[in-house]
Amino acid sequence: MTTAFIRCPWCSVHYDAFQSLCDQCGGALFPPEPSDPGAVPPPAPRALPKGYARNLMFSGNPLGLVGGIFFAVGLLLGVIFPTIGIATGLWLMLLIGGFLALIFTTLGGTMLYVVYQAGMNKVRPYKDGVAVLGEVGNVYKNPLVNVNGRNPYTVEYLFRADGRPFEGQMDTWSSAVIDLEKGQPLHVLYLPEDPLQNVIYPPL
């Protein structure tokens, strides 16, 4: 595997040589040897490296950004219009401001809640998932996603939960995943109540 994988997947710090744990955040690094899945994940509930859960939930999510803007605008309108209304005696401004503030904060709050719930679905397997040994199924460029002329890589992996076979997948912009070999072992975390919610550990 190429040295491009000597990067902490939790905090993005780079290293010249492989080490099992990141000095910066303490997170486990993906092992460079194809036959080595790395150390077994710690038992649940797991403490994730600082900042990773927040980044996983909100980073690169446009809905979260739009929701935050709407919510902030709503709060601002809720302050400006009533202030003007009280200062000028135009009580209609209070009604207009309150109505607009309610609309913007409700829309913004709803978007933020949706982003939060979707983010928690990503975080929970890392924190509470059951650890099993899985294997790489396939690696390919995802033609359905295109950002500035670039396509992310999709890694498909296989694992078993309660004796049943499951397949998971993750997308990454790291070209280093093309060195993953079919059948290569890796650790998978899944929620026992819903094995369809699963992740690779450590992330790629």
Q: Which short descriptors sum up this protein?
A:
204 residues, alpha+beta, 35% helix, elongated
Write a structural description.
The structure is a single chain. The protein has helices spanning about 50-60, 60-90, 90-130, and strands at about 130-140, 155-160, 165-170, 185-190, 195-200. With about 200 residues, the protein is of the alpha+beta class. A hairpin with a 2-residue loop joins strand 4 and strand 5 (about 195-200). The longest helix is centred in the middle third of the chain and has 38 residues, at about 90-130. The two termini are about 15 Å apart. The model has no long low-confidence stretch (mean pLDDT about 85).
Element-by-element helix/strand order? HHHEEEEE
Structural class: alpha+beta
Helix content: 25-40%
**Straight-line N-to-C gap:** 13 Å
Q: How many β-strand runs?
A: 5
Q: With helices defined by DSSP (H or I, 4 residues minimum), what is the helix count?
A: 3
User: How confident is the prediction overall: mean pLDDT?
Assistant: 86
How large, in whole angstroms, is the Cα Rg?
Answer: 22 Å
Beta fraction of the residues? 15-25%
Shape: elongated
How are the strands of the biggest sheet laid out side by side? 3-2-1-4-5
Poorly predicted runs: none
